[in-house]
Amino acid sequence: MDIDTAAVDDAVLALLYLTLHDYNRAWKSFDWDVMNRLHERGMIDDPVNKAKSVVLTDQGLRESGRLFRQHFVRASRKE
């Protein structure tokens, strides 16, 4: 199976938005390879530490919110 890791990474970044707390922290309960790639892209701080959450960079926070809205928010209906 040929997995599109960029698409997986974007989906995980969007899902990190669901667990945001303390402004820019999110629970890091996703695959370590994905988390490392997000770190390499500058979306999150280094995920390798004892904390159960990871800090999203300013860029990561913006992109996480954008991807979340793109993939998971229904368009509002005008009545």
Automatic annotation (TrEMBL):
* InterPro entries the UniProt entry points to: DUF6429
Protein name (database record): DUF6429 family protein
Q: Which organism is it from?
A: Paraburkholderia tagetis
In what residue span(s) does the DUF6429 domain sit?
4-73
Q: Which Pfam families match?
A: DUF6429
